[in-house]
Amino acid sequence: MKRILFFVAAMAFSVFGYAQQTGKSKKQLRKEEKRAKINALIKAEEEGVIAYRKHFAFGVKLITDGYGITFEKGYSKSVKSSTLFQIEISERKHHKEEKQNSPYVASAPFILGKKNFFYPVKLGVQKQFLLGNKSNKNGVSITANIGGGITLGLLRAYEFEIDDNNGRRFIRYDSPDSAIFANPIGRNPSGPGLGKGWNHLKVTPGLYVKPAVRFDYGRFNELVSAIEVGTFAEFYSKKIPQMIGNKENQFFFGAYFSILFGKRK
User: Fold this and answer.
1) Element (H or E) spanning 10, and its range?
2) What is d(CA 160, CA 109) in angstroms, rounded to the nearest whole number?
3) Quick check: 139 and 216 in contact, CB under 8 A?
4) Domain ranges of the chain
5) How far, in Å, CA of 151 to CA of 207, rounded?
6) Which CATH number fits domain 52-264: 3.30.470.10, 3.40.50.11270, 1.10.10.10, 2.40.160.20?
7) Distances, alpha carbon 30 to alpha carbons 18, 21, 26, 44, 139, in Å
8) Which pTM does this prediction carry?
9) What tens digit of pLDDT does each residue of 107-137 get?
10) Which residues of 78-96 are buried (b: 16+ CB within 10 A; e: fewer)?
């Protein structure tokens, strides 16, 4: 009986010891893999090479006639080229816009002669080509981006509030009271809020192209920290009415400056 108990105890100890040794080996293997990955990242950081499979980035941009926000998702098959899928929403202003205040009562400022708010919404694709990688982890990566896509010009009717013998009401340029719209002074005009004009929303589709140069100055390669400068050209299926008494444009050309932040994987 003692021999049997001793044999069982010996077998149990052997199994436990083997399991413990196997678990330890796996743990050591994971540590070695993690250490190798960290060493590879450190080496890449030192050499300045940016290598990734995908990334996402958010950005804010200043345009020659407005401002906007952008989001992109990028995919890369090599260090030298990537494909960027982008969405951008902006507000564009006419160069003749001038805010005014009612001389008689305190009110929200209004823009005399403004027809519509103009919001281009862009959906596009860019190809990104590496021009110069980082010389070290504190360097700057330079890429050239070229692409384009579709743009939807959202036109929100500009409505401002007036107060005259008929009471307070909202007027827009194509309403029956458009003569008042052209000269509202004396009727205590007040500019529209964000919630006005959406019930008269119109959409004008178009196409755009956008070449740019991007400078990625991020200290760590897994993070996107970049500035981008570029130009754009947009063509719409119809002319865009922005201001009364001014030429309505169908083609728009301009430049922009963006700041982008994101992460690579």
Assistant:
1) helix 2-47
2) 9
3) no
4) 1-47, 52-264
5) 5
6) 2.40.160.20
7) 18, 14, 6, 21, 32
8) 0.76
9) 788 888 889 999 999 999 999 999 987 766 6
10) eeeebebbbebebbbbbee
